[in-house]
Amino acid sequence: MAMEIKETFQKIFGNRGLKSFLVGMAVFAVAGIVVFLTTKHGDVVLFINRYSREAWDPIATFLTDLGLGTFVAGLMALLLFWKVRYGLTGLINLGLVGIFTNLGKKVVFSNRPRPFNYFYYDDFHRFLYHAELNYHYSFPSGHTMTIFSAMSLIAFFVGKRSAGIFFFFAALIIGFTRIYLLQHFFLDVYVGAIVGFFCTILAVLLLNGVLRLQRFSWFDQPIYKIRFKRQ
Length: 231
Fold this sequence. Notes:
The protein starts with a helix and ends in a 21-residue tail after the last helix. Helix 6 (about 85-110) runs antiparallel to helix 8 (about 140-160) and helix 8 packs across helix 10. The protein is mostly helical. The protein has ten helices and no strands. The longest helix is centred in the middle third of the chain and has 25 residues, at about 85-110.
C-alpha cells in the first residue's frame, strides 16, 4: 500500500492541471494572509458591498448556486457515465466536503454569526433584500468548499495547465459571490477554499492509493458498460 500511496502522490502533484490550480491556491493563500494582517473582521464584506450593483445581483445569485452540494452531486453522478473513476472520485470528494462542512458549522464553530447577524442594517452601503437571510453557521463556507473541491478535481481530470488556471478563477469568483451576497466573511471563504482543495487530494489518494481501485477494469469504464457476473 505504501508504494501505491507514493505513486498516487506523484501522480497528483505531477498533474499539470492540478499544479496550476495549486499555484493559484498558493497566491490566494498568501494574499489572504495579507488581508488578515491589514483589515478587521468584516471589512472585506463591507468593501465588496460598497461596490455592489443591483444589475450584478442576479449574476451573483446564479453563480453562487453552482456551489450547491445538490448541483455538484448531480454533476459528479453524470460523470459516472463517462468513467466510474471520475464520478466516484467526485462523489467521495463531495462526501468529504460534507463531513468537514458540518463539523465546522455545526460542531466546532457553531456560534459563528453570519454578516446579517454581525452587522447592523445601517452598516451596509446597499442592503440586498433578495439575498437569503441566514444568521448562523458561518464558518466555513460550504458553497466555497464544494466549488473548490469540484473545480480542482475537474482540473485534475483534464490535466492541462490552462484548465487549472481557468477552473481556479472560476472557483474563486463563485466563492466571492458568497461575500457579495452577504452570506459569509472572507475568512469563511478563505478556509473553505483551502479545505475544498485538500478534499480533492484526499479523495484521489483514498481511491487510488489506499483502496487501489485502479486495479479493477470497471473503474475506468462508463457505469452502463459494467457487467456483473451471475452466480
